[in-house]
Design brief:
Blueprint lengths: L4 E3 L2 E3 L6 E3 L1 E5 H7 L5 H18 L7 E8 L2 E8 L1 H9 L6 H13 L11 H25 L5 H13 L3 H8 L12 H21 L4 H23 L12 H24 L1
Length: 273
């Protein structure tokens, strides 16, 4: 990324595209080209994921991803002003299969060392976003089972855990030496995604098959959990309860927030010089 865009034989760095006008920012359309995306329509999905990451971190995305118009080739087009941290989050949400994105992620991994931000790839950002989806997914599922006649939410929840993990949630928490309320905080991307699939597919099955009543709802949750378990074993060779645990998400959020503050302070310091 340090030598991605060339102009008349000159190699330009990420820093060369920096703008100063009240805030230090980079144009999303410039970053889009650096990352190998053909147009803003395809890049919009990456911007959207970055926006969701800001929401998850409780950092104002309005101040970091600023929608504005830009004159390009004589035409006014919608663009975004991105802060340094927004560029970082956007890069981390890019498609790592693209060589330009992989190079950019490696570049930022190196650059963010001085901000004590040690998140090497998009895995941690993915985990944050999936965790947010899980929260929303559980709310939707619980709304559905309430209408379907649930009487014991705890037993219904544990039916899914029994199907997927062969144990109730409190036993899984005991096995992993964590509080059962924080079980998902240390789950890796694969395990979080599997739990999201369990929740969404349980809700779909309940709706499509018209499942009602405590016992039938529990059985449905158990069956979907067991199906997800079998998929994980087949694809990873490991049972869900033995999947590796990762850095706790509250610590990931803390690190990202501290990195944001340091990046902001750094750019403000440079502007004053």
């Amino acid at each position: 990324m340090s030598e991605i865009i060339k102009s008349e034989g000159e190699k330009l760095t990420f820093e060369d595209f920096k703008n100063e006008n009240g805030i230090t920012y980079w144009w999303a359309s410039d970053l889009m080209q650096m990352l190998g995306y053909p147009n803003m329509k395809s890049f919009q999905k990456v911007i959207d994921r970055a926006t969701k990451a800001f929401v998850s971190l409780n950092i104002s995305h309005y101040e970091n991803i600023v929608i504005t118009n830009r004159i390009i080739d004589g035409q006014s087009v919608q663009d975004f002003k991105l802060t340094r941290f927004a560029c970082y989050i956007t890069v981390m949400n890019g498609d790592p299969k693209k060589s330009e994105v992989a190079e950019a992620q490696a570049y930022f991994a190196q650059q963010t060392r001085k901000f004590e931000l040690y998140i090497e790839n998009n895995n941690e950002i993915d985990r944050l976003l999936i965790r947010e989806e899980l929260t929303e997914g559980n709310k939707s599922l619980f709304s559905t089972i309430k209408k379907a006649g649930i009487t014991d939410y705890a037993k219904f929840t544990n039916a899914g855990y029994l199907g997927m993990y062969n144990m109730e949630n409190w036993k899984l928490a005991q096995k992993r030496n964590v509080n059962k309320e924080k079980l998902m905080d240390s789950m890796g991307r694969t395990e979080l995604a599997a739990n999201l699939f369990r929740i969404t597919q349980t809700e779909e099955r309940i709706k499509n098959k018209g499942v009602t009543g405590q016992n039938a709802l529990e059985q449905t949750h158990f069956q979907v959990g067991r199906e997800v378990r079998n998929i994980i074993v087949e694809n990873s060779g490991k049972t869900p309860e033995n999947l590796p645990q990762e850095k706790e998400l509250p610590n990931v959020k803390k690190e990202l927030k501290e990195g944001y503050k340091k990046m902001l302070k750094e750019d403000n310091k440079k502007k004053k010089k």
